[in-house]
Design brief:
- The structure is a single chain.
- With about 180 residues, the protein is mostly beta strands.
- A seven-stranded mixed β-sheet has the order 4-3-7-10-13-16-19, with helices on one face.
- The chain has one helix and 21 strands.
- The N and C termini lie far apart (about 55 Å).
- About 5% of the residues lie in helices and about 45% in strands.
Length: about 180
């Protein structure tokens, strides 16, 4: 428009920083041999599904790597749907969300690895979803918010620590809940 150039983000560093445009990215999505970057959890969600048309943009197996500690007070949400098989590599970083943010796993599968910290609720087969099932595999990490599931989902825990964050200790925010 006014002679401004759009950054192609060709020099993004391992910590997610692009020195060309001075932008910090927190998430790297690797799917089908290409990498896309996102600044927020909502930006990441929009790389997966076009909500204007309900078109699923990424199917099959893909990996999301946390590039830097991500702490947000915004209401953010990410949903995985049938046909998506995501690995979340925490990369030793923390994913901390306030204000009732969530990761919904609706008929999809999510594997969490990378020995980081997760401070966001995870919902398997959410009641309001038309999809059933869903699987969550936790290979390692520290989890400070609950994991919720229904009878038609699968939760596999190989290793990890599950405890409430200090500011939530009185509210019993850590743990696993299963319902019929």
């Amino acid at each position: 428009a006014d002679g401004e150039e759009t950054c192609a983000h060709q020099a993004i560093q391992a910590n997610g920083y692009c020195p060309d445009c001075k932008t910090q990215f927190y998430f790297a999505l690797t799917a089908g041999g290409s990498v896309s970057y996102a600044q927020t959890l909502m930006d990441l969600d929009m790389l997966l599904v076009d909500y204007d048309t309900d078109e699923v943009l990424v199917t099959g197996s893909f990996t999301v790597k946390l590039l830097a500690d991500y702490h947000s007070e915004d209401m953010e949400h990410m949903g995985l749907i049938t046909g998506q098989d995501m690995t979340l590599d925490l990369n030793g970083k923390s994913l901390i969300m306030e204000n009732r943010a969530a990761i919904d796993i609706e008929g999809a599968s999510l594997t969490v690895t990378g020995n980081g910290i997760v401070g966001i609720p995870m919902y398997l087969s959410v009641d309001y979803s038309e999809e059933s099932g869903g699987s969550l595999t936790i290979e390692n990490g520290r989890f400070y918010h609950p994991i919720f599931g229904t009878e038609d989902c699968t939760l596999t825990i190989k290793d990890g620590v599950f405890a409430p964050m200090e500011e939530y200790e009185d509210e019993s925010m850590g743990g696993i809940s299963a319902e019929k």
